[in-house]
Design brief:
The complex is a heterotrimer. Chain A is α/β, with parallel strands linked by helices. Chain A has nine helices and five strands, in the order H-H-H-H-E-H-E-H-E-H-E-H-E-H. Chain A folds into two domains: about 80 residues, Orthogonal Bundle (Methyltransferase, Methionine Synthase (B12-binding Domains), Chain A, domain 1); about 120 residues, Rossmann fold (3-Layer(aba) Sandwich), CATH 3.40.50.280. Chain A has a five-stranded parallel sheet, with helices on both faces. In chain A, helix 7 links the parallel strand 3 and strand 4. Helices cover about 50% and strands about 10% of the residues of chain B. Chain B has 15 helices and eight strands. In chain B, the strands form two sheets. A six-stranded parallel sheet of chain B has the order 3-4-5-6-7-8. In chain B, helix 12 links the parallel strand 6 and strand 7. In chain B, helix 7 packs across helix 8, helix 8 packs across helix 9 and helix 14 packs parallel to helix 15. Chain C is α/β, with parallel strands linked by helices. In chain C, the strands form two sheets. Chain C has a six-stranded parallel sheet with strand order 3-4-5-6-7-8. A two-stranded antiparallel sheet of chain C has the order 1-2. The termini of chain C are close together. Chain C folds into two domains: about 130 residues, no CATH class; about 190 residues, TIM Barrel (Alpha-Beta Barrel), CATH 3.20.20.210. Classes of the chains: A alpha/beta, B alpha/beta, C alpha/beta. Chains in contact: A-B, B-C. Chains A and B meet through helix 4 of A and strand 2, helix 8 and helix 13 of B.
Chain lengths: ~220, ~350, ~350
């Protein structure tokens, strides 16, 4: 396939994600595979590139959460087609991340969006969901040896669980990078709590994790 | 506590504020539930489950910190998920401060067809809220009726992410839920008016799901605003004159829409989070009483000096708002706030809140 | 009429002059940490934070006098043992971990601690410098002679020795007494005798532990000696916290020199009327609401019991300060402490000074 046609395919995939098209995206993915485009390339330069644009649109206040949710639905529909075709062992994940909403808090929409952005950026994700007991974060860290743990909270009450969670995680692995986020938090509180980083939104979370992870490596 | 220089009682202060006159000092209020019960030696859950304890603890904490009774919040009168048949549990453990929804009544389109308007005498925590309201009436306090905005309540029935997807893909389902929500609010509000009289009822609304952290002003205009207009038409029909609106979170992009529509009677109390600058709020809503906007996370994790400094700045900005100003937290008072930080707010009003006699 | 400031109230009480209302004398430590969101250990391990937390909490609740540094297990650490700072959910103050004297032969190894470096004394000194800077009473808190002795060798051992080997008990009491005099001398040299108000907390001498006869032989002589020597240093007032049930000891306490006026605070086990009858002629009476009532009582009962205590205390000829009978539990609901403030404002006013 010539480079122009390949680029056009990837651009279409990108656009389908940005246009929130949950039907068209998987169809295009199948067509891309049939046309001989490598599944990994289609993910990274099509779907993930689309989510990058979505992130920018969110920062520009063009897109809000409903749009983000539908874009992420489209991306996941595409991933379902492409992921089984990625050759095992050929591409390393960007890093391993554990995420969840801390004990006492069921507000998981922010965490869901963070997950989408990490998915798009090629991270291996262990999503523990919402209302996660602190010990489970530590246990999962012991089991997976993840590079990063991302903790989320929306309530001023539940965010009080974070210092304890961070202490537990650091006790398991002093080098693990802990990120915190959620509406009541800010960089100062994150620092007080002993976190390595804070991100105000899902897009910034991926950037911050990537930056801290590269620095540590 | 009664501040030593107070020249008015709380009641006189509130009356002056609503009559458009300057009170003796900036009033101080707090949306506070679990902080009160803990302050009086009870649990957070008791704030929601035991109206008598909750009420007593609230009056005591109000006296202790010199709050004015605005608003007296003991949880929502009406709720989305719970009232419509979902599952809710009480807060428990170290890190919970509010009701927790464990199951939403609407998960599919078909669930909406099965929804019925809840019975105001039995649904959710309405009977408990009614007991609380009776205590307010007996003490001669305003009888607060708390609901979320129809948009926020509708999202709470279906779960936020499902509801937000439907705003894009199935707007007609959103409209069905919105219509049910507003009908439910007024069903129960009707009961309140019948029981206490419209004069006594103070309707209070919060709209967290309309925040621009979640939705665009376009969505607010399309789905939320029409129901604000309808709400205030129906409120006026019932004869309820007192209204407070907690415009929760980051809503800067919605302010022009709300200011243009401005469907409430004046003065109403408009409560803002720290995300909205008080001078911006005053410019948009010159006829209303501003309430806010100390950042709850600072009240919870900051030093008393930091809280005091924020209060001083807020008082200086808000004090001369044309419609009046009440100092308070920018959202619910955190359950676990160090008490000295709550006292720092009282102290700031004491030091900077006075109007010339 | 403008109400008196805390400092004016304290100065007036010590000078035997009238006050506008009954002062609230603090016995509030861990509660202050909670009030600021600090771990309780902060009160004992960080002089700056401890002082600031108490100062702010006292302002919030209208508590007088000024911040204090001290704990009942004083002596263990200073003589070479170990204590644990309170860390668990249910701990309220430092606790013994390891006593310096576990057997008879350990006594030979005991030496008088260097008061500039031993145990918590550097923190206590830093705290007193803050008391000086903020012009609050400079009250260094120690155990009483008997309590320090018990904290050196464990109270069970001290009790056994009192009966079986009294000479060993006296050796330890001698060391405790000399140590107390060293501390007071150091504080007097640093701040001047007229500013220093030493405090002695004497829980181990309670009649739940020892008999009045044992008190006469093993406690009183050392208290008298200490009191005389401290007065010779020029110190004007000494505060004794007569902790727990010491009803049977009470008449002997009247023999202890404690300044003019002295200051005596009582546990809730002692009736204020009796305290006044026995010690009121020589000391300001301080006490003595049951802290467990403040922890778990109903508001109406708290208010009423405060009123009763205040009404009794008003009859003290050398003055009265309201206080809890022992340390306020850190978990005490804030509203209950506010009720004390309310009671003092409502029932404790004494007209214009």
């Amino acid at each position: 396939m010539d480079a122009d046609r390949r680029a056009a395919f990837l651009k279409q995939l990108h656009d389908a994600v940005v246009d929130m098209d949950e039907e068209k995206t998987p169809r295009l993915c199948r067509e891309a595979l049939e046309a001989g485009i490598d599944a990994y390339t289609a993910i990274m330069q099509g779907l993930a590139a689309g989510m990058d644009t979505v992130g920018r649109l969110y920062e520009q206040k063009e897109y809000f959460v409903p749009e983000l949710l539908l874009c992420s639905d489209a991306m996941y529909a595409g991933l379902e087609v492409l992921r089984p075709q990625v050759k095992v062992g050929e591409h390393e994940a960007a890093g391993k991340i554990i995420m969840g909403v801390v004990e006492g808090d069921i507000h998981d929409i922010g965490k869901t969006l963070v997950k989408t952005m990490f998915e798009a950026a090629g991270w291996e994700i262990f999503d523990l969901g919402k209302d996660v007991k602190l010990e489970r974060f530590a246990q999962t860290l012991r089991e997976t040896g993840a590079d990063v743990v991302a903790l989320s909270a929306l309530m001023t009450t539940s965010m009080m669980a974070m210092p304890k969670a961070i202490a537990m995680l650091k006790a398991v692995d002093p080098k693990v990078i802990v990120l915190v986020g959620g509406a009541p938090l800010n960089a100062e509180i994150a620092r007080q709590y002993g976190a390595d980083g804070y991100a105000p939104d899902a897009i910034a979370a991926v950037e911050t994790a990537g930056r801290l992870f590269t620095k540590a490596a | 506590m009664h501040l030593p220089q107070d020249r008015m009682t709380s009641q006189e202060r509130m009356a002056a504020l609503f009559a458009g006159r300057r009170p003796d000092r900036v009033p101080l209020g707090a949306m506070s539930t679990g902080f009160n019960t803990r302050n009086a030696g009870h649990t957070v859950a008791e704030a929601y489950e035991d109206p008598e304890k909750s009420f007593a603890d609230m009056q005591w904490t109000t006296e202790q910190y010199g709050w004015d009774p605005i608003p007296q919040y003991a949880g929502h009168t009406v709720l989305g998920a719970w009232d419509f048949g979902g599952q809710v549990r009480m807060p428990r453990g170290e890190y919970e401060g509010a009701l927790v929804v464990t199951d939403y009544p609407v998960k599919t389109e078909a669930d909406i067809e099965r929804l019925r308007l809840p019975d105001p005498r039995t649904a959710g925590r309405i009977p408990l809220a009614l007991r609380f309201a009776r205590l307010q009436a007996e003490q001669g306090l305003p009888v607060y009726f708390f609901s979320r905005s129809p948009f926020t309540m509708a999202a709470n029935i279906a779960g936020i992410d499902r509801f937000l997807r439907w705003t894009m893909k199935r707007p007609e389902l959103c409209e069905q839920l919105l219509a049910l929500s507003i009908d439910h609010i007024f069903n129960v509000l009707g009961l309140w008016v019948d029981t206490f009289g419209a004069e006594r009822v103070f309707a209070w609304m919060s709209s967290p799901t309309e925040s621009n952290q979640l939705v665009s002003p376009r969505i607010v205009k399309k789905f939320a605003l029409p129901y604000h207009l309808a709400y205030h038409r129906r409120l006026a029909d019932l004869g309820v004159r007192r209204f407070g609106f907690h415009i929760c979170g980051e809503q800067n992009l919605n302010l022009p829409l709300l200011a243009e529509a401005c469907p409430w009677s004046h003065p109403s109390v408009l409560s803002f989070g720290h995300e909205v600058d008080l001078e911006t709020a005053a410019a948009h809503f010159p006829k209303d009483i501003l309430f806010g906007n100390i950042e709850p996370a600072v009240i919870q994790t900051g030093t008393p000096e930091a809280v005091y400094a924020l209060c001083r700045a807020a008082i200086e900005k808000g004090k001369n708002a044309p419609g009046g100003f009440i100092l308070g937290p920018g959202c619910g008072l955190p359950v676990g706030a160090p008490p000295v930080n709550v006292y720092a707010m009282t102290r700031a009003v004491h030091d900077f809140g006075w109007y010339a006699a | 009429m403008h109400p008196m400031t805390s400092r004016e109230r304290t100065d007036a009480i010590l000078a035997g002059k009238p006050v506008d209302r009954i002062p609230h004398f603090p016995f509030i430590l861990g509660f202050c940490a909670r009030n600021l969101g600090y771990p309780i250990a902060t009160i004992y391990s960080d002089a700056e934070k401890s002082f600031a937390a108490q100062k702010m909490t006292f302002e919030q609740y209208g508590v007088d006098w000024g911040p204090l540094y001290g704990y009942a297990s004083y002596g263990t650490w200073e003589f070479g043992g170990q204590i644990d700072m309170p860390t668990g959910a249910y701990q309220q103050a430092p606790a013994h971990k390891c006593f310096p004297v576990k057997a008879e032969e350990d006594i030979d190894r005991l030496i008088l601690p260097d008061v500039r470096t031993a145990g918590c004394l550097p923190i206590a000194m830093a705290f007193s410098r803050l008391q000086e800077r903020h012009e609050t009473p400079i009250s260094v808190v120690m155990g009483g002679n008997f309590t320090i002795a018990g904290n050196i060798c464990a109270v069970e051992r001290l009790c056994r020795w009192m009966i079986k080997k009294p000479e060993l008990a006296h050796r330890i009491l001698r060391l405790a007494t000399d140590h107390i005099l060293d501390i007071v001398t150091h504080w007097v040299e640093t701040f001047g005798a007229e500013r220093v108000i030493p405090q002695f907390w004497e829980p181990l001498a309670s009649n739940l532990i020892i008999s009045p006869r044992q008190f006469r032989h093993f406690v009183l002589p050392y208290l008298v000696e200490t009191g005389e020597r401290i007065q010779e240093l020029g110190v004007r007032h000494v505060l004794h916290h007569i902790c727990g049930d010491q009803n049977a000891n009470l008449p002997m306490w009247a023999e202890v020199p404690m300044g003019d006026p002295g200051l005596c605070s009582f546990g809730e086990e002692i009736d204020i009327d009796r305290a006044i009858a026995v010690l009121g002629a020589q000391a300001v009476i301080i006490g003595n609401l049951d802290p467990s009532l403040l922890l778990t009582g109903e508001p109406a009962e708290i208010l009423e019991r405060c009123r009763q205590t205040i009404e009794k205390g008003k009859r003290a000829p050398r003055g009265f300060m309201f206080s809890v009978g022992c340390e306020l539990a850190p978990e005490t609901p804030g509203y209950h402490l506010f009720l004390v403030q309310k009671a003092l404002e409502r029932f404790g006013t004494l007209g214009e000074p």
